[in-house]
UniProtKB/TrEMBL annotation:
This is Caveolin. It is found in: Cell membrane; Golgi apparatus membrane; Membrane, Caveola. GO terms for biological process: caveola assembly; cell differentiation; insulin receptor signaling pathway; negative regulation of endothelial cell proliferation; regulation of cytosolic calcium ion concentration. One of its GO terms (cellular component) is focal adhesion. Belongs to the caveolin family. Keywords: Cell membrane, Golgi apparatus, Membrane, Transmembrane, Transmembrane helix. InterPro entries: Caveolin. It holds the Pfam family Caveolin. It comes from the Eukaryota. The keyword DNA-binding does not apply. GO terms for molecular function: molecular adaptor activity; protein kinase binding. The keyword Transmembrane applies. Signal peptide: none annotated.
Amino acid sequence: MGVEKEKLNTSIIMDEDEFNRSIEPILMKKGKVYSEAPVRDPNEINTHLKVGFEDVIGEPSSAHSFDRVWIGSHATFELVKFFFYRLLTTLLAVPMAFTLGLVFGVLSCVHIWLVMPVVQSFMMLLPSAQKIWRSLVDIFVVPLFQSLGKCLSSIQIETTEN
C-alpha cells in the first residue's frame, strides 16, 4: 500500500482495414460501452448526407502518401466533421425547431381554417359550372383531338439501315 513507482506505457493499436471501413467518428465506436443509438431518420430522408472520408478525399493508385498521413487525415476529417456538427446543432437546433414549429403551425392553421373551407364551398356551390365546363370540353376539345388522332394514326414510319 505504498506509492507505486512503476511507469506504464500505453499505446493504441488500430487495424488499418478496420479504420478504413469505419464511417463513424472515432469517438463513437460501438462497443461494449455504448448502447444502440436510436434511429433518428426512420424514413431515410437524409441518405444523401452520409458523407464519408472516401467520398471527399481519394488518392489514385499512382500516388500514395504515407500511411500515417492518410490515417491522420482520415481521423482529422471525421473528428472535425463530428465536432462541428455537434457544435452547430447545439447552437441552431432549438431555434430552428422553434421557427419550423411556428411556420408549420401557421401553415396548418391557414390550411385547415381558410383554404379547405373555401375549396369545399366552391365545390358545393359550383357543380353547375363543372357540368358546363365538361360539356364545353366535350363539344370543342374532344372532337378536335379525336380527329387529330385519326389523321395522325394513318402515318407510318419505317426505318431502314443502309
